[in-house]
Design a protein that fits this description.
- This protein has 390 residues and is an alpha/beta fold.
- It has a single domain, classed as Rossmann fold (3-Layer(aba) Sandwich).
- It contains 16 helices and 16 strands.
- The protein has helices at residues 4-17, 22-31, 54-57, 60-76, 94-106, 108-112, 123-137, 198-207, 221-233, 248-251, 288-297, 308-314, 317-321, 332-345, 347-351, 381-389; strands at residues 20-21, 83-88, 114-119, 141-143, 151-158, 167-171, 176-184, 187-193, 215-219, 234-246, 262-265, 268-270, 281-283, 286-287, 301-307, 354-361.
- Strands 2, 3, 4, 5, 10, 14, 15 and 16 form an 8-stranded mixed beta sheet that branches. Strands 1, 6, 7, 8 and 9 form a 5-stranded antiparallel beta sheet that branches. The chain has a 3-stranded antiparallel beta sheet with strand order 12-11-13, with no helix packed on it.
- The two termini are 39 Å apart.
- It binds S-adenosylmethionine.
- The site of S-adenosylmethionine has 21 residues, from helix 3 and helix 5.
């Protein structure tokens, strides 16, 4: 079931202005101020929601990420406001909870001088985060509208960018058309039209891929704008971006003629954004080459790019898994924990598709990050990933 008021809102906009670019439809479906998927009440993430994120699978994810963030914070040293972490798109607040729990128990000195800033677009989720976090970490966490200027610290996100609305294009060797949404015979229909902004054509030129056959692709301009904004705000520090996706050469291939756009509804995927409007998530994979390029434009250098398997291995997940296992003599609880951790790191589960991009600005050059001790590369990216994906 779609939300009738949300259908009416989008339909009225189309009837007033004509067909709208798909990106605008997706913006309303996910983030209409009160009716959008992310802005209205209800479970989105986890068993009772529509999809799992790593932080909802097992707290070890937050713990190991915290270990990496701690190494970065210590290398950067304290700024005027102590140590600063900025999490963007914090969902239910689970990742924040796990990170702060780890820092409190392992590094009270850092914890006591830490400010943890959350930047969250959805007011409903902000309330949810406060309910989860304030009883435990009232004086550590603050919510802000934007990244503070001249920030010294670490800015990170998990599955923020895949939740941003995308432009959808249909391209072939000669033409580039954008997918628009129209209203006909009492329902939404897709039509094709010219690109709604010249930025899409500029972006396509940068992708530098030959589309010999008609191919559908998504372009996430909001992610590029986001990278530009945070790069400009960061004076010194790291940006850690965790999400599913590929470098451009692997994302835009004839093997994906329909792109990567997907909807999630109660743990099932579908390709129909016109079902369950306001009740289902919509996402597309991330073009990490475009992100890295956008970062370079604002002074963020790529420190490393790896996948979740290797990132978590570098941070010691294998050792943490040792007490658990599937052997006959293990308890049911130990088996359950083991399977959840395996889900995070196994290449055929979340380990390979999820990537970690780490960028830095004015950072200590000698620091070797634990999470990048396996495959800390970017330039060799195509070659190595191609090898692993076969
Ligand atoms: C897929 S959820 C991921 C939640 C969480 N990071 C996790 O690991 O479970 C995406 C989150 O990003 C938020 N979000 C989307 N766009 C945003 C933006 N431009 N700024 C801040 N938060 C945003 C959503 O409201 C939601 O909380």
């Amino acid at each position: 079931m779609s939300k009738p008021e949300l259908i009416a809102f989008i339909r009225d906009e189309i009837q007033e202005h004509g067909p709208i670019p798909f990106v605008r439809f997706m913006e309303s479906a996910l983030y209409h101020p009160t009716l959008g998927y992310y802005t209205s009440p209800g479970e989105k993430i986890g068993f009772r929601g529509d999809y799992y994120t790593s932080s909802s699978v097992h707290p070890i994810f937050g713990e190991l990420l915290a270990k990496q963030l701690l190494q970065m914070l210590l290398a950067l040293g304290e700024g005027e406001s102590g140590y600063t972490l900025v999490e963007m798109g914090a969902g239910k607040g689970t990742l924040c909870f796990d990170i702060l729990s780890y820092l409190k128990s392992t590094s009270p000195d850092v914890f006591n001088r830490l400010r943890y800033i959350i930047i969250e677009k959805s007011p409903t989720l902000r309330t949810r985060q406060r309910q989860r976090l304030e009883p435990f970490f009232l004086d550590r966490v603050q919510w802000e509208e934007a990244v503070p200027d001249r920030l010294i610290g670490v800015l990170f996100s998990n599955e923020l960018l895949d939740a941003m609305p995308v432009h959808r294009l249909r391209v072939d060797r000669k033409t580039v058309q954008e997918i628009y949404v129209d209203w006909k015979d009492d329902r939404f229909v897709e039509t094709l039209g010219p690109p709604s902004t010249p930025r899409l054509l500029d972006d396509l030129k940068k992708i530098d891929v030959q589309f010999d056959r008609p191919t559908e692709i998504e372009i996430n301009l909001q992610a590029i704008d986001w990278m530009h904004r945070i790069g400009q705000s960061l004076a010194r520090g790291y940006v850690v971006t965790i999400d599913y996706g590929y470098p451009a050469e692997m994302l835009y291939t004839p093997r994906r003629p329909k792109g990567t756009f997907l909807c999630y509804y109660r743990h099932q995927t579908n390709e129909n954004p016109y079902d369950h409007i306001g009740e289902q998530d919509m996402t597309a994979h991330i073009d990490f080459t475009a992100l890295a390029r956008a970062g370079e434009e604002v002074g963020l250098s790529v420190i490393g790019f790896t996948d979740q398997t290797h990132f978590l291995m570098g941070l010691g997940i294998a050792q943490r898994m040792e007490p658990y296992g599937m052997e006959m003599d293990r308890s049911d609880e130990a088996k359950k924990q083991f399977l959840a951790m395996k889900q995070l790191m196994a290449p055929d589960r979340m380990g390979r598709i999820f990537k970690i991009l780490i960028q830095g600005k004015n950072i200590p050059p000698e620091l070797k990050l634990d999470g990048l001790q396996f495959k800390p590369f970017f330039k060799l990216l195509t070659l190595i990933f191609f090898f692993f994906m076969m």
